[in-house]
Structures are given as C-alpha cells and as structure tokens.
Amino acid sequence: MKLKYILAAMLLSFFSFGVVHAAGSPINEDFSALIAQAEKMIDAGKKSDATAFIAAADEGSSVAKDQGNKGNSPGLQRVSFKFKMAKKAVKAGDFIQGITLSEEAISEMKKEKAPLKFGGGS
Q1: Does 66 fall in a domain?
Q2: Do 92 and 14 contact (CB within 8 A), yes or no?
C-alpha cells in the first residue's frame, strides 16, 4: 500500500514540472515591433488622424497578444494596457492623452531591466 502512495507522489511531482513558471520578466524580451506601432500611434496622433491611430493601436494590441502567448510579463501587460487606454482616449477625441500614453508605453519598453540576482535572500 505504501508503494502505491510513493508512486502517486512521484507521478504528481513529474507533472508539476511543466506547470512551474518563473516570476518576473523574461530576460530577452523583444519590444521592437511594439515600439514601431507606438511610434505610428504618436505620428498619427500628431496629425490628428484618429483612424490611423486606432489602426496602429489595434495592430499593437494584436502584436502584444501574440507576444504574450509566447511568454507574458508584467512589462508587456503594462504596455498593452497603455495601448488600450491610448486608443480609448483618441476615440474620445483626446489626442494629447493618446500621445502621452503612447510615449509612456515606449519608455516602459525601453526601461532598463534590473540585473539578475542569484542566490539566497535579498
């Protein structure tokens, strides 16, 4: 009977290895496509072109979604939220807020990552 419990525990531990994810951001996160979309949003906002801004925001959101399927991170979530809020602001006619949010998204993507720390404790 005890052998049965040991085997069950080992089997469950092997299955849990595939579910474990690391906390924090990926080390090599590529935001180049999202930065290009944010720059398109800023250019369209400066020209007061709502349709181009919304199209660039939609494209940026789909790129963020695709990138999130490969590996989601807190930074990617913040950028995606800023894209959605910028799109919402431009739909309401506030181009300045849309441009500001797009610039904040770019600064979030270009933010330097903290160096990795390995070992115990803080």
Answers
A1: yes
A2: no
Domain count, the chain: 1
Cα separation, 27 vs 39, in Å, equals 24
- Domain assignment present for 117: no
Q: Give the global pTM.
A: 0.69
pLDDT at 74: 83
The torsion defined by the Cα of 10, 11, 14 and 20, in degrees rounded to 10, comes to -100
DSSP character string of 23-85? SS--SS---HHHHHHHHHHHHHHHTT-HHHHHHHHHHHHHHHHHHHHH---HHHHHHHHHHHH
Q: What is the pLDDT of residues 73-114, one digit of tens each?
A: 888 889 999 999 999 999 999 999 999 999 999 998 888 876
- Mapped onto helix, strand or coil, the DSSP state of residue 4 is helix
CB 45 within 8 A of CB 98: yes
pLDDT at 47 over 70: yes
